[in-house]
UniProtKB/TrEMBL annotation, chains A, B, C:
InterPro entries, per database record: HotDog_dom_sf, MC_hydratase, MCH/BMMD, Thiol_ester_hydratase_Rv0216
Organism domain of life: Bacteria
Any one GO molecular-function label of the UniProt entry: lyase activity
Pfam families cross-referenced by the UniProt entry: MC_hydratase
Protein name from the UniProt record: MaoC family dehydratase
Amino acid sequence: MKTNPGRFFEDYRLGQVIEHAVPRTVSGGERALYHALYPARHALCSSDQFAQSCGLSASPIDDLAAFHVVFGKTVPDISLNAVANLGYAEGRFLTPVFPGDTLRSTSEVIGLKENSNGKTGVVYVRSRGINQRDEVVMEYVRWVMVRKRDLSAAAPETVVPDLKPALTVDDLHIPEGLDFTNYDFTLAGEPHRWGDYAISETIDHVDGVTIEEAEHMMATRLWQNTAKVHFDLTFRPEGRLIYGGHVISLARALSFNGLANAQMIAGINAGAHANPCFAGDTVKAWSEVLDKAQTDAPGVGAIRLRLVATKGGAPFALKGEDGRYLPHVLLDLDYWALIPM
Amino acid sequence: MKTNPGRFFEDYRLGQVIEHAVPRTVSGGERALYHALYPARHALCSSDQFAQSCGLSASPIDDLAAFHVVFGKTVPDISLNAVANLGYAEGRFLTPVFPGDTLRSTSEVIGLKENSNGKTGVVYVRSRGINQRDEVVMEYVRWVMVRKRDLSAAAPETVVPDLKPALTVDDLHIPEGLDFTNYDFTLAGEPHRWGDYAISETIDHVDGVTIEEAEHMMATRLWQNTAKVHFDLTFRPEGRLIYGGHVISLARALSFNGLANAQMIAGINAGAHANPCFAGDTVKAWSEVLDKAQTDAPGVGAIRLRLVATKGGAPFALKGEDGRYLPHVLLDLDYWALIPM
Amino acid sequence: MKTNPGRFFEDYRLGQVIEHAVPRTVSGGERALYHALYPARHALCSSDQFAQSCGLSASPIDDLAAFHVVFGKTVPDISLNAVANLGYAEGRFLTPVFPGDTLRSTSEVIGLKENSNGKTGVVYVRSRGINQRDEVVMEYVRWVMVRKRDLSAAAPETVVPDLKPALTVDDLHIPEGLDFTNYDFTLAGEPHRWGDYAISETIDHVDGVTIEEAEHMMATRLWQNTAKVHFDLTFRPEGRLIYGGHVISLARALSFNGLANAQMIAGINAGAHANPCFAGDTVKAWSEVLDKAQTDAPGVGAIRLRLVATKGGAPFALKGEDGRYLPHVLLDLDYWALIPM
């Protein structure tokens, strides 16, 4: 068979490194499309001059656009036969991505655990995005539940990686040259700096976006993510499932209203796609400040945020009495952002 | 509160200058998206070589794309609490915008008038788009009706600016170097030059476009326009209102068929969004020649046009016996364009 | 009348050369949009580094993106009054198109044949895309059935051009410098090389895409194709007809899964739009290997493929017992691609 059937659980080996296909050169086209698909307004990823005033050579593409490019490449090898995307951890953004850069991805298998039903198993991979200078631009751990092809295949030795529940500020990498001492709060859009946010403070980002089929499919294709469930209504007649990353980007863009100065994502501690999202849903977002820390870079603080996307319900409600996500919660993301002191 | 509640009528002061947030570097991505969203075909904004044959350094982005970028930045400060966008005047396009340019916007409050109901007032602003060399690329006056936050707030002194009913050709600024003496009418798409248009001539542009939700939202997001009514069906269950600028761009692009040589917009004299537009509407356009003038630039004539967008009805019908716009009229725009002599 | 009524059958003369309007400079924006609209993943058109490893200066835009730009320009002069797009032949891709290139198009009338009904005729044109260095980037023959304006107009002498049923490998032009001897099959996404494909082998490309109105209209506008039937629901209330080229690009992109290494299109032998396509249809694709040949370029083989797009039905079924295309077949395209040996 010439077409890609995807890997099944028994195809993964501990320590295996998978080099993913189809490298991608990004341009101003990817940035314009990102801003057409999401209400993204963080000034650092909008203006070369603003980025230069913060010590960068030019305006990088949005961190999540780079993430999607890196993630999309892993789909044909990691999640084509996945029945669930279980979690993220230890995500670190190491080098900004600029128009003209070319990205490719690799994944290393760092854990395997067959489920007791004998039909599926959990695969843990550490994926890396690498640019044309062989610099790692980001890395993150993801674990997915994957079907077995052959139910009689022997279970591998169970290895569950020891993952940090959250990165500390020392784990974060500040982009070289980043300097917020001359930060222009007026051009950035809000006056709130690091010191204005308190741990456990919550912010309702107010705005909402009703999603259309054309939008999420254009986004998902742009990231060269090939999962059938997002595109083919004959494959999934109950409705095309929206790529979880689309919801992450929507929520992050909506969070501008209240967190306009959380300019760059430095780390992803954890993430859960709590419920599926479909065209017609109206996505809103709220945030909670989980932690704060100072960094060594001039004027640059770090803020740890919970970002929650919803498709209804009141802000700030996350889980029910049973400890499960409420049905209107789409995303629960825990990340570190860089913000002027 | 960390999120932007927008300004209310009593927050504006005569002479106040508001520096709007989120500067934007534009690229070929914005141009490609503009041409995917609107049937834009004016050769000067499509081909570097054509633009160079007209004396420019490269092909600028469409004048209205630049306008939307500038306008979008003003929304969070000027029209977030607006109940109506009342009018435009004295719009002048001063410097073409090229891929690589970075735009920011400012607005100066030039008029204030509380309405007799004591609940709302009219705010007049002169908005300017400014590039990375601090050159003003365009300016225009807009007035909007804005709610009061506190109905007991004292009314400001009424100042209504003295606005020109229309710009004259002497008010227009011709882009430096523009020269139509070697203009290639074949590559431009139509043979009609300045002398072929007569004052009061009308042109039915024939073509129509049925609008989709995904299109107007992608456009409006690309301009970083944040007004809720365009995006959030839970905020406006009766239907997402299409950004008036989307209709302007559609109508201008449709006017290529009959006005292919009206290459650049030099001025906007007046504009009214006569009725709301929704996804599913089919937009068509017609034009009327209001005036003509010569300019000092070689081979460059000016033509003043009324551009009307409709969502039904016959062309050339504008107002009813009661003097009000007919219900199918979406836009009535009065502008100056530059056209080869 | 200032607007373009299109040419009618009697407006064409044998040997006439029509220079089409609106040249276009392409950028990374066109590439990003192409990849957002189609699930395109061929590495050569995705990564500058991959293209350079194959001997090119940079990553060209997808061959079909260039084709659509060239084709779109011909529409106002060739097919505005066409009642049917009858066929393609002798399509040759001569020079890759890179971001920054500017394309224009010409068509030469090479055949005319009035139909016996006296109401329509067939016009054969050889269209060429030309870049800013006056290099022909591609050429192809297309024939369309066009209405007569004046039924009493005299029929022209019938001239039917002698067209090759298929190009041979000697007719193909290999891009200068193309070299597949260091081809990276891992980054390209599949291990199958020229020798792995057998004549008459068929491949079901498995994946499907359900089409939305916004997508095909954005694509068709981007190519500056002005045919009313694609955009205006009041003109065609039974549904907007999707531009045939949209289906070609969808099918070609879907064929990545099984033909990831068929990197470049070198020739188009024939093509038929078998049935109309509408929003809501789910497009899938299958291919059949029709022929194979070696080329003089290092490591570069040629493979002749039938590419069939469907909107239902089982793969590999093409025509009924009556010799007519089955109702679910959208496209039957016969082309040559370049693939590593």
